Amino acid sequence: MKNIGTVLIAVIGLLIVTSLSAFTVDQREYALVFRLGEIVSVKKEPGLYFKMPFVDNVRYFDRRILTLNWQEPDRFITSEKKNVLVDSFVKWRIIDPAKYYVSVKGDELQAERRLSQTVNDGLRAEFGKRTIHEVVSGERGKIMEILRQRADRDSRQMGIQVLDVRLKRVDLPQEVSESVYQRMNAERKGVANKLRSDGAADAEKIRADADKQREVIIAEAYREAQRIKGEGDAKASETYAQAYGKNPEFYAFYRSLDAYRNSFKSKSDVLVLEPNSDFFKYMRSPGKK
C-alpha cells in the first residue's frame, strides 16, 4: 500500500509538472516564451510546446489582420491652403512578435498610436503637395499607395506589416462647404440668367423674322389677289365689250334689268327720279328696239 501511495503521488506530481510546462499555440496567434523577463523562444507555428515550469512564462499575440480606425476624421491642409476632413483606416498585422514586444512592450494601443502618427504625418505631407481636386479624385489611389509604402517601411521597425491604407472619405469642413455651395449657387444663377437673356433675345429675333415673313406673305398675297382681280375685271370688260358689239340694244336692255333688280331689291329702298329719266327708258316702251 505504501508503494502504491508513492506511485500515485509521483504520477500526480508528474501531471502537475506536465500541465505547468506544456502550452499550446493557436493558428491565430504567436507565443513568446520568457525566462526571468528575457525572451528565450518565439513560437510562430500552431502546436503543443513545453517550457520550464515556475521559471518560464508565455505571452500570446494576435497574428490576424487588425484594423486601425479613427473615431473622428482628421483635418489637413492642401496646397491651396484649404482645409479638408479625411476619414481613413489602416490594415496591419504583427509579423515579428519579438521586435513588436521590444518596441511597444506588446501594447496594442501604443502600437496603434505610433502607427497613427506615422500615417497622419504621411497624409499631411501628401495633401500639402496637392489640390482638393487631386486628393478627392485625381490622385487618390496614388496617395493611398504612397502612404501604405511609407507606413509599412516605418512600421517594420516595430515588427508590424501595414497591408493597406484607405481614404474612406475626403470632405470639406462645414463652413467651407457652405461657402462653396453659395458660390456654386451664384454661378448657377448667373448661368441661368444668361440662358434666359439669350433665350429672350432669340425669341425676339424669331418673332421679328416671323412678322417680317408674315408681312411679305400678306403683301405677296395682296399683289396676287390684285393681279387676279385685274385679270378678272379685264376678262369681264372684254366679255361685256364682246356682248355689246354683237347686240348693243340687247346689252343695254340686259344692263338696265340688272340696274332695276339692284335698285328695287328691298321695299325700304327709295329712288327719286324724273318720270322722263333714261332710267325708266325700258319701262316706258318695253317693246321698242
Question: How would you briefly describe this protein structure?
Answer:
The chain is α+β, with helices and mostly antiparallel strands and 289 residues long. The protein is built from eight helices and nine strands.
Mean pLDDT: 83
CATH architecture type of the largest domain? 2-Layer Sandwich
Number of helix segments?
8
Regarding CATH, which class of the largest domain? Alpha Beta
Biggest sheet, in brief? 4 strands, antiparallel
- For CATH, the homologous superfamily of the largest domain is named as Band 7 domain
**Low-pLDDT residue intervals, each spanning 5 or more residues:** none
**CATH topology of the largest domain, which one?**
Tetrahydropterin Synthase, Chain A
Structural class: alpha+beta
* Tally of separate domains: 4
Tell the overall outline. Answer: rod-shaped
Please characterize this protein's 3D structure.
About 55% of the residues lie in helices and about 20% in strands. The protein contains eight helices and nine strands. Strands 6, 7, 8 and 9 form a four-stranded antiparallel sheet that branches. Helix 6 packs across helix 7. It is rod-shaped. The chain starts with a helix and ends in a 5-residue tail after the last helix. About 10% of the residues are buried. The mean pLDDT is about 85.
